Amino acid sequence: MKNNNKIFWNKFYNSKDSNNKPSNFALFIVKKFIKKDTYLLDVGAGDGRDSFYLRKKAKHVYSIDQSDIAIKKNKLKAKRLGLKNVTFKNLSSNHLKKVASKKINLIYARFFLHAINQVTEDIFLQSIKKNFDSKTIISLEFRTTKDLLMKKGKKISKYERLTDHYRRFIDTNKFEKKLKKMNFKILYKKLGINLSKSPNDNPHLCRIVFCFNPIR
Is residue 158 classed as helix, strand or coil in its secondary structure? Predict the structure, then answer.
């Protein structure tokens, strides 16, 4: 399943032109959480649509994705445009340590959490706690168990489905309990449709922003 997803996304980005329009989630994060001194890590950046936009508002954007095709295209685009404050690396979320820096104060991941399994999610969250500064803000947007796509595709488990690629639909109550157990503090949460509406899809999403909540 892990390799199948990488193969799917490599084929997808190889045949897809870059989208220059930022997502609604990127617009939201810029409005509410990005400052001029923000060093941002974009996890699962895909075609870089949000990375290229966010770097206009942040000090620097570090952008990673497991698709070497997507990263190669993004690097070429950044070089062609002469951009200095966006860096692309071909890395999976299991290797956050390689991009960990005390400079990074905002982690951004749109449509990433529902693309990984439960084990990888746990590694991702633990890696954030272990490798990043205590002031780091984490912002996520993902499909929930109320999303209609959960009714489609091959059922792998209670929350996992396989269509042309893998998805895991997130139980937001369980996820929120996990964050609190891991000593994260939730700063913002919103659930519903119309957060990322397109002509062919209007997913039920969770937007959640949280940070470390150190014990005093």
Answer: coil
